[in-house]
Amino acid sequence: MAKGEIGHAHARRLSALSEDNWALQWPQSVRAYSKMLREDSQAKSVERAVTLPILRTPWYVEPNGAAPEVVQMVAEDLNLPVKGDSTASPSPQAIGRVSWQETLPWILKYLRYGHAYFEKVYSDGSDGPQRLVKLAPRLPDTIEKINIALDGGVDSIVQRAATDRDGRTLDRVELEVERLLFFIFDEERKDGIGTSIFRPAYKHWILKDEFLRLERLVLERNGMGIPVYTSYDAYDQADIDQGQELVEALRSGAEAGASLKNGSELKVVGVSGQLVSPREAITYHDSQIARTALAHVLNLEGKGGSYALAEVQLDVFIQSLQSIADYIATVANKYLVPDMVEKFTGERVGPFPRVTFETIGSRTGFTPEQIVALKNAGLLIADDALLEHVRRRGELPPLTPVREALEKKLERKHLEEELGVTLSAGTAPPPPQEQGVNSE
Hints:
Strand order of the largest sheet: 3-2-9
Low-confidence stretches: 434-440
Shape: extended
Number of domains: 3
């Protein structure tokens, strides 16, 4: 706890904020949410709708006034480009280090389970400064205990014993908070567990699953009607019993049929009156699952409605995605980047580079027409940063190689005009002649 802090944020075991559904109490919750995402198409669609835009948006390292060698180190160790520098590319030293784009999907699993823990693994420093070589996921089903300090912060996690592929038993491992990088979603109380984004959708998933089973039974029972046998004689019990066996064994098929005594009757009777279908209830619970993540757009099925309302719903959804990505960047910039700099330089002194990303959403920022209008109005200058941004958003080649090619082409043109000859693309220009020497 901080000096002078006399209160605490330690969660009680039977707190009023505790999860009251046993199936969703940690660690049982890990199995429940895994099952939901494996079996329910709507829940999986919601997860992908939330995560794919964040995975798709470009992520960068922003120098933020840090020393160039520090910026290069962070960019190399996270395998991210430096914002505004299109010529920067990972050096051979970056091979085998962390890939941010490969780690990001594991980070985003904190939305599914409520938390995601990683161990920061550095080189031993024998061949130079310590460098980040791995952000190793510590999967939720391997965590046995999360130790919480009195101030509510995570103190350490304990991983249960495991067995390697050679059959050897590995000991329980306790990882101190200094070794950890973790992400927690919608924490109701200071427990290091958080709340899954699918927690409000759980009851809708359970009810929807029951209604799907009921719909199968309704279709199986009433899809072809109910076979009814009427005996030729109300007092011939043997014939009535044979008729019962007949209707229970009746199945459709190419060779299906029945042989009846004269006067007996076999018919298939449909359901009279209105048949209640579970389909409407299934659709309702499907839509509620999407609403839990503000993914109302998944409920639009071309049934009409207000386009303005749909745009508002999409804007709110994009803002929620922006908030999720902001949180991930904030955690990385607060607990990862300064640690990397300290390991590299030996001191924790800023300014530090920042992990950042482009604004999520296709309708954000200025259009090319608006950029031209702003430039013509004198509100924008076509400097290298703006040119790089426009080329990057338009998925065009980087500016620097193009500029070098144009400069070489212009230089060749001037040389051709000066010599009065045409040089081919592969021809080297002639060496300059010394003054006073006759070329003849």
